[in-house]
Amino acid sequence: MRRLSVSLRWKIALTVTAVSCAVAAVLGVLVHNAVTRQTVGEVRKDAGNDLDTALVLFEYGTSREGINSVLDPPELPAQLRTLVHSGKRGSMVGSYHGRPVMWVAAPAGGQIMAVWSPYGSTRRNLEDFDTAILGSAVLAATAVALAGLFVAHRISRRLASTAAVARRITAGDLDARVGGTAGHKPGRGPTGHDEVAAVAAALDSVAGSLQSRLEVEQRFTADVAHELRTPLTGILASAELLPEGRPKEMINDRLRALRGLTEDLLEISRLDSGAERADLAGYQLGPLVDRAVRTTGLDTEVRLTEGSDPDTVVETDRRRLDRIIANLVINAHRHGAPPVVVTVDAPRGGTVSVEVRDRGPGFSDALLEHGPQRFRTDAPGRGKGHGLGLTIAVGQAAVLGIDLRFDNAPDGGARATIQLPRYPEARH
C-alpha cells in the first residue's frame, strides 16, 4: 500500500489544530458544566424557597395563591415521586401541561407537595450559551490553525531552502550557501537565532570548510604536477643518453608512465578549477569515433548499429571527445577483458550515443553508486578498476555538458555510454 506523504508544514498545522481543538473542547465542557450548575442551581434554589413557603401555608391551611404549588400532581416525574415517598425532598426537570418546568417536591401530611418553576427560558439560555461556546471554539481553532499554518509554512520554507542548498553542495556546487553565495553578497536565506538558523549556519560552515579543503587539494595537485614536469623532462632527455638495451627500455617506459600521470594531474587540476571551456563545432560522428579509437593503438572493434547514419553531425569539442573515448577504451582494456567494442548508435532523428563495452567482471558497486574516484582502483577480480582515466572522462563530459553513464550489461561486462547532441544545423 502506498504511504501518504504529508509535508512538515501540514504536520505542524494539523498538530496545532488538533491540540487547539482538544483544548477548546475541554474548556467548553468545563465552562458549560459550571454555567449549567450555576443557572440550574439558581432556578432550583428559587423553587425550593417557594416549596418552603408552600409547606408552611399548607400546614396552617392558608391559601397558597401566588405560588406554583400542586398536591400530588400526576405529571410529577416517577423518580422524584419515589424519592418523596421515601420521606426525602428533591428536584428534577420535567414538564407541566406540556411546558418544561423545574419540579421541587417534599412530603406534606401523607401527600406530595410539589412546586414548579418555568424552565423553558433557562433551557433556551443554556442552549444559546452552548452555541456561543461552540462558535467561539471553532473561531479560536480556525485562528490558531491559520496561525500554525503560517508559522509552519515559514519553518518549512526555511528548511526547504536549507535542503536545496544541501542538494546543490552534494551535486558539487560548493559555492552554494543558505545565506547567499560564497564570496558574494548574502542572499535571502534562513535568518534568526532559532534551531533552523543554527542548522543553516552549520551547513554553511561545513560547505565552507569542504570548499577550503578541496581548494587546498586542488592547489596541491596542480603544484605537484607543475613541479614534477620540469625535472621529469630533464630526466627523459638524460635517459636518451643511456646505452641501448633492456635497462634503457624499462627506464623510458616508467618515465613515460610518470609523464602521463603528470599530464593527467595537470588536466584534473584544470578541470577542478572550472576554467575549462569547450570549443563546440559540428563533426561527423563516425570518423570522429574511428579516429579516437585508433589513437589508443589497442585492438578495439568499432560497430555501427543497424539503421544508424555514420555521417550524423554532432555538436562537440573534438579534442575533449577524443579524450573521453580514448580514456574509456584504455580503461576497458586495462581493467576489463576482450573483446572491447565501441558501438555508435545514430538513428535518424533519434538520440545519438556511443557505447564502450568490454567482457570483464564489470564496474564495482562503489563506482556505480559514487562515480569514478581519483587514485582509487579496485583489486583484481573484484570489479573494474578506476582512477584518473575515468575521472578525467567524467570531468571532460561535464565541460561538454553531455551525459556519461556507467553500468554493467545484463550478460556481463562493464559498459560506458555517452549521449551527444546533434549539431543545430543538422537537426532539421
UniProtKB/TrEMBL annotation:
<keyword id="KW-0472">Membrane</keyword>
<keyword id="KW-0812">Transmembrane</keyword>
<feature type="transmembrane region" description="Helical">
    <location>
        <begin position="131"/>
        <end position="152"/>
    </location>
</feature>
<keyword id="KW-0597">Phosphoprotein</keyword>
<dbReference type="InterPro" id="IPR050428">
    <property type="entry name" value="TCS_sensor_his_kinase"/>
</dbReference>
<dbReference type="Pfam" id="PF00672">
    <property type="entry name" value="HAMP"/>
</dbReference>
<dbReference type="InterPro" id="IPR036097">
    <property type="entry name" value="HisK_dim/P_sf"/>
</dbReference>
<keyword id="KW-1133">Transmembrane helix</keyword>
<feature type="transmembrane region" description="Helical">
    <location>
        <begin position="12"/>
        <end position="35"/>
    </location>
</feature>
<keyword id="KW-0808">Transferase</keyword>
<dbReference type="InterPro" id="IPR036890">
    <property type="entry name" value="HATPase_C_sf"/>
</dbReference>
<keyword id="KW-0902">Two-component regulatory system</keyword>
<dbReference type="Pfam" id="PF00512">
    <property type="entry name" value="HisKA"/>
</dbReference>
<dbReference type="GO" id="GO:0005886">
    <property type="term" value="C:plasma membrane"/>
</dbReference>
<protein>
    <recommendedName>
        <fullName>histidine kinase</fullName>
        <ecNumber>2.7.13.3</ecNumber>
    </recommendedName>
</protein>
<dbReference type="Pfam" id="PF02518">
    <property type="entry name" value="HATPase_c"/>
</dbReference>
<dbReference type="InterPro" id="IPR003594">
    <property type="entry name" value="HATPase_dom"/>
</dbReference>
<dbReference type="InterPro" id="IPR003660">
    <property type="entry name" value="HAMP_dom"/>
</dbReference>
<dbReference type="InterPro" id="IPR005467">
    <property type="entry name" value="His_kinase_dom"/>
</dbReference>
<keyword id="KW-0418">Kinase</keyword>
<feature type="transmembrane region" description="Helical">
    <location>
        <begin position="101"/>
        <end position="119"/>
    </location>
</feature>
<dbReference type="InterPro" id="IPR003661">
    <property type="entry name" value="HisK_dim/P_dom"/>
</dbReference>
<feature type="domain" description="Histidine kinase">
    <location>
        <begin position="223"/>
        <end position="424"/>
    </location>
</feature>
<dbReference type="GO" id="GO:0000155">
    <property type="term" value="F:phosphorelay sensor kinase activity"/>
</dbReference>
<feature type="domain" description="HAMP">
    <location>
        <begin position="153"/>
        <end position="215"/>
    </location>
</feature>
